[in-house]
């Protein structure tokens, strides 16, 4: 991706004008931090859908990341009430990325994070594209590595929690590299 002069200023300076003009994306990545549970208090990297979904126009300091039930979110969600005004964590598979995004949107979700269903995937980002149905979605849709999604879900299960608390998006340009707490299972 080629970033123009205005784009570089957005990367270097966090100006409200840049946010209004370009949303809160940084290059092709968007970052979020898990605040709770504490054992996965890391900054995670996700990639936005290529040609559908919205962008983040605001930063959520604390919002719930709710694993969808069923996890693939290809139809009615049994925990849809908990997804309303929150962000859903969904697993890849069963239907298109756009279909999952629309299901979460129909349940009132503010965004969807779709993790790869390959739990050993710790480095390959899938490009989420339109499914050629001419449908649209307005909420942001992000792709998360399978290992990251698995570790978040596993931590929630171990603690008996129905959701994680996250901050999204996170401006990583202001964080020194040595303080960038990325998951230890992810190597760059």
Which helices and strands, and how do they pair?
Elements: H1 5-12, H2 16-22, E1 30-36, E2 43-48, E3 60-67, H3 80-83, E4 87-91, H4 97-106, E5 111-115, E6 141-144, H5 146-159, E7 164-168
Parallel strand pairs: 3-4, 4-5, 5-6
Antiparallel strand pairs: 1-2, 1-7, 2-6, 3-7
Q: Could you explain how this protein is built, in words?
A:
The chain has 188 residues and is α/β, with parallel strands linked by helices. It has a domain at 49-56 and 63-163: Glucose Oxidase, domain 1, CATH 3.50.30. Helices cover 23% and strands 21% of the residues. The protein contains five helices and seven strands, in the order H-H-E-E-E-H-E-H-E-E-H-E. The protein has helices spanning 5-12, 16-22, 80-83, 97-106, 146-159, and strands at 30-36, 43-48, 60-67, 87-91, 111-115, 141-144, 164-168. It has a seven-stranded mixed barrel with strand order 1-2-6-5-4-3-7. Helix 4 (97-106) links the parallel strand 4 (87-91) and strand 5. The longest helix has 14 residues, at 146-159. The chain is globular, with a radius of gyration of 16 Å. The protein starts with a helix and ends in a 20-residue tail after the last strand. Mean pLDDT is 86; it is low at 1-27.
């Amino acid at each position: 991706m080629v970033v123009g002069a205005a784009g570089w200023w957005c990367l270097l300076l966090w100006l409200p004008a840049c946010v209004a003009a370009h949303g809160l994306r940084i290059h092709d990545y968007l970052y979020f931090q898990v605040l709770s549970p504490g054992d996965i208090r890391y900054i995670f990297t996700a990639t936005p859908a290529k040609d559908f979904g919205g962008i983040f126009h605001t930063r959520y300091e604390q919002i719930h990341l709710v694993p969808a039930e069923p996890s693939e979110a290809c139809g009615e969600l049994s925990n849809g009430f908990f997804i309303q005004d929150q962000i859903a964590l969904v697993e890849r598979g069963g239907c298109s990325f756009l279909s999952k995004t629309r299901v979460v949107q129909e349940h009132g979700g503010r965004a969807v994070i779709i993790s790869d269903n390959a739990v050993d995937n710790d480095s390959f980002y899938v490009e989420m594209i339109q499914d050629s149905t001419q449908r649209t979605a307005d909420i942001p849709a992000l792709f998360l590595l399978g290992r990251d999604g698995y570790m978040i879900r596993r931590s929630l299960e171990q603690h008996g929690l129905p959701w994680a608390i996250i901050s999204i998006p996170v401006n990583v340009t202001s964080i020194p590299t040595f303080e960038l707490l990325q998951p230890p299972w992810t190597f760059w």
